[in-house]
Amino acid sequence: MNDWDFSEEVKFGSIQEESIVVVIAPDHPFCRYSALGIQDFQTENLIITQENCTYRAMIDELLQEAGVQPHSLIEINNIQAIKQLVMSGLRITVLPRVSVEYELRKIC
């Protein structure tokens, strides 16, 4: 990925795209789905990071473009706390895949 943007002040470009994944407890009803779409979030209790998080804008954009407003929304500024709440079965979340790699290695 060598999509470089040049300006007089700064040069920057992408080196890797980051996967965003849905994270749910093993007993969540979504586990029975063969596919999951953003529309499925309409009835869910969603935990997301606070607005100052870099990928939060991507999540907000996905929800807005799909016209989805989750049943409830909690903002937490700590990814570990978000994962703990999800593992306890209270809510679902959307996180960068890299932030759940440790948990994935433990179960795979």
In short:
The protein is of the alpha/beta class and 108 residues long. It has helices at residues 56-66, 79-87, 101-107; strands spanning 4-6, 11-13, 20-23, 45-48, 72-75, 92-96. It has three helices and six strands.
Please describe what this structure looks like.
A hairpin with a 4-residue loop joins β1 (4-6) and β2 (11-13). The chain has helices at residues 56-66, 79-87, 101-107, and strands at 4-6, 11-13, 20-23, 45-48, 72-75, 92-96. The protein has 3 helices and 6 strands; from the N terminus they run ββββαβαβα. With 108 residues, it is an alpha/beta fold. The protein is 25% helix and 21% strand. The longest helix is centred in the middle third of the chain and has 11 residues, at 56-66. The relative contact order is 0.22. The chain is globular and about 50 Å long. The strands form 2 sheets. It has a 4-stranded mixed β-sheet, covered by helices on one side.
